[in-house]
Amino acid sequence: KNINNYRESEKAFIAEILKIPLVSELEIYQYPIDPINLNKSYESFNSFLGKSLENLLKDLLAQSYEYSSQKWPKGKEERKLIEATWSLLIINGNEGIKNDALNAIKGSSMTLSRAALNALIKVDCPEREKAMKDFYEKWENNPVVLDTWFNLESSIPRKDPIQRIKQLLIHPRFDPIAPNSIRAVLGGLTRNINCFHSYDGTGYLFMAEQIANVDKNNPIIASRLLKVFSNWNKYIEPNKEK
Asked: What pTM value is reported for the model?
């Protein structure tokens, strides 16, 4: 109900209060850290919010669409709100919203394009695969923007995510020397929670091997990547041991 007090003039504020802190932030408040179950709770709570606020979110979304196409800085608050509402509605399988997000990939707004990808990658659906394909085809000749694609592609939960990440590391558009490209792929792996924090330690081992490879050419980047292991002694077992 209180959202109605801000909907006309404070859309950016509404967008912020609808965003749930990322798992990496929530870890600060948990000891010992149970990353896989924490991620499961994170996804469940997002789904709960999406279902509980569905009618309100759709109303906010319709109002935001009207102004979102305006040239920056106009429409920026509406675009932020669209990003927040897409994330909460798409996780519940809303087909109409999926199509809206998919259409945004080919639009002129990079903010909405990335928002669409971030919302769709959480759900295993045909729209996700098409969105990633469309984004890649649109930006394959722009290395800076394409790093976004590499990052998201490596973060998508799949049946065999390590195999997909290996493919990305030898992708013809991947630059194994460029720090941003390296961070894009390996950073995506760390956000692929069930993969990176797998109980058998395969995610940790794969990351360690990649850091060792990076160290041969760029020890500074390698040392920064090592920070992903900085909380090792705060994890539950078997994660702590692995």
From this structure: 0.91
